[in-house]
Amino acid sequence: MQPVATTFFFYLLSGLAVLGGILVITRKNPVHSALALILTLLSLAGLYLMLYAPFVAGVQIILYAGGIMVLFLFVIMLVNLERSAKEEQFNKQWIAGTAAALALGVLFILVYTGGKALFPEHLAQLPEQSNTQEVAILLYGNYMFAFEIASLLLLVAIIGAVVMAKKRI
Amino acid sequence: MTDATKYLSRLELGQPDQTFLDSNELIINMGPQHPATHGVLRVILKLDGEKVLGTECVIGYLHRGVEKIAEHRTYAMFNPYVDRMDYVAAVSNGLGYCEAVEKLMNIQAPPRANYIRVILTELNRLASHMLWLGTHALDIGAITPLFYTFRDREEILKIFEKYCGARLTTHAFRIGGCQYETYEGFETEVKKFLKFVAPKIDEYEELLTTNRIWVKRTRDVGVISAKDCIALGVTGPVLRASGVKWDIRKAQPYAAYSDFDFEIPIGEKGDTYDRYIVRMKEMRQSLRIIEQAVGKIPEGPIMAKIPKVIKPPVGEIYHSIEAPKGELGYFIVSDGSTQPYRLRVRPPSFVNLQALDMMVRGALVADVIAVIGTLDIVLGEVDR
Amino acid sequence: MLDYITSYLKSDLTPGAAGNVLWAFVYILLIFLGLSVAVIAMNWLERKILAHMQVRLGPMRVGPHGLLQPVADALKLLIKEDIMPAEADKVVFWMAPLFVVMTAFTVFIVVPFGPTHAVTDMNIGVLFMLGVSSLSVLGIVMAGWASNSHYPLIGALRSSAQMVSYEIAMGLAVISAVLMSSLNQAGTGTLSMIGLVQAQQAQHTWFVFKFFPLGLIAFVIFAIAMVAETNRAPFDLPEAESELTAGFHTEYSGFRWSLFFLAEYSAMIAVSSIAVTLWLGGWMRPFPTWLSGETWDLVFSLFPGLTFIFLAVFAFVGVVRMPKHPYFRIQTMGLAGFGAVLGLIGLVLFAPPVRDRIQDIYWFSVKVAVSMYMYIWYRGTFPRYRFDQLMKVGWKILLPVGIGVLILTAIAGVWL
Question: What is the CATH number of the domain that holds A62?
Answer without folding.
Answer: 1.20.120.1200
